[in-house]
Design goal:
binds iron/sulfur cluster; binds S-adenosyl-L-homocysteine; elongated; alpha/beta; 11 helices; 351 residues; 2 domains
Length: 351
């Protein structure tokens, strides 16, 4: 059985036209049924002929990963623990805002980058997710909210995507790009590139490349104003120092003029002093950036403490005075452990 979710249009055409001998317009109908209507089995795709549906069902599927757990928080954040065909598990989360919301998707099982403050980073990398596994996280969310067919106007609940779940997207570049191209396709899921944000720990060679391959918004997990501090909390800094990350961001902005979000996790006594805020300001001078200050989300065994709210506010005030937006990210879904990697770890412990 080949799962059709995650095949590029070219690959789907190859299956349907070359291998099955069907006409090219069938590919368009099928694509529409899968990604616009969200049909979960071929029998429901009544726009297709009965005979074609039967032939599809013999060799192909449009199955989603199975849902091990679905939890909805008091603040309406919803989280799914999903199990892939080989038993590997990842999480995705839906974070509602006033009249829309973002689905946070994972790109890997575990992560090789090993940031010290990150729970996913403390779990070794098991494998990359396939493009289908990335796309289907969003489709599971759509299933859950019944948001099919793809709404055409701005009435969507599931309006945005943030690639901020488990894993480093640029360490799984090909599959992430392939998945996002499917998600952006106007005949299907139709999430525009302006509504997608890819977050990276700063895998330099792929940053500028992503501007031309995808053109989405970009977020950098900066988390420190200099290499010395960053190396302690993000060892990958030895390979890709901050100057190179900033250089790549400047390249990115030559293609995508939109501001870049600099994520900054507030770690008590480590990176949260006024001198660090000032150093940050000189680091990003001349670039269009906004900051996103993230209180550290503790997990069992973590070695850090979050900075106090007072300290975070003082830090934000310095950035704001210099003209930068610096909202503090409100932690959502605490009661369902919505922070990345936490639900998976809990369920694994429970057995
Ligand atoms: N690997 C990518 C995307 C996934 S992590 C990246 O690092 O950007 C998504 C965001 O969550 C990153 O900014 C990451 O630094 C942050 N994060 C990780 N662990 C966290 C924790 N314990 N508390 C708060 N934010 C955390
Ligand atoms: Fe990986 Fe991102 Fe976690 Fe770092 S913060 S370990 S890059 S998932």
């Amino acid at each position: 059985m080949i799962n059709l979710i995650g095949l590029s249009k070219e690959e789907l055409t190859n299956e349907i036209v070359e291998n099955m001998g069907e006409k090219p317009f069938r590919v368009r109908q099928l694509w529409h049924s899968i990604y616009n209507r969200g049909e979960k089995n071929f029998d429901d795709m009544t726009v297709l002929s009965k005979d074609f549906r039967a032939r599809l069902a013999e060799n192909y599927s449009v199955d989603r990963p199975s849902i091990v757990r679905e939890l909805t928080s008091e603040d309406k954040t919803r989280k799914w623990l999903l199990e892939m065909n080989d038993g590997k598990r990842v999480e995705s989360v839906y974070i509602p805002e006033e009249d829309r919301g973002a689905v946070c998707v994972s790109t890997q099982v575990g992560c090789a980058v090993g940031c010290k403050f990150c729970h996913t980073g403390s779990q070794k990398i098991e494998r990359n997710l396939t493009s289908g596994e990335i796309v289907s996280q969003f489709m599971v969310a759509r299933d859950s909210y019944g948001e099919w067919p793809s709404p055409v106007n701005d009435t969507r609940l599931l309006s945005n995507i943030v690639v901020m779940g488990m894993g480093e997207p640029f360490n799984n570049y090909e599959n992430t790009v392939k998945a996002l191209k499917i998600i952006m396709d106007g005949d299907g899921l139709a999430i525009s590139k302006r509504r997608i944000t890819v977050s990276t720990s700063g895998i330099v060679p792929y940053i500028a490349k992503a501007a031309s391959d995808l053109g989405t918004k970009l977020a950098i997990s900066l988390h420190a104003p200099n290499n010395e501090i960053r190396e302690k909390i993000m060892p990958i800094t030895k390979k890709y120092p901050i100057e190179e990350i900033i250089g790549a961001c400047k390249e990115y902005q030559k293609t995508i003029s939109h501001y870049i979000t600099m994520e900054y996790i507030m770690l008590d006594g480590i990176n949260d002093g006024p001198e660090h805020a000032k150093e940050l300001i000189s680091l990003v001078r001349g670039m269009g950036v906004k900051f996103n200050l993230i209180p550290f989300n503790a997990w069992p065994g973590s070695e850090f403490k979050s900075s106090s709210m007072n300290k975070i506010r003082a830090f934000a005030a310095i950035l704001e005075k210099a003209g930068y937006a610096a909202p503090v990210r409100v932690s959502r879904g605490q009661d369902i452990m919505a922070a990345c990697g936490q639900l998976k770890a809990k369920v694994n412990k429970e057995g």
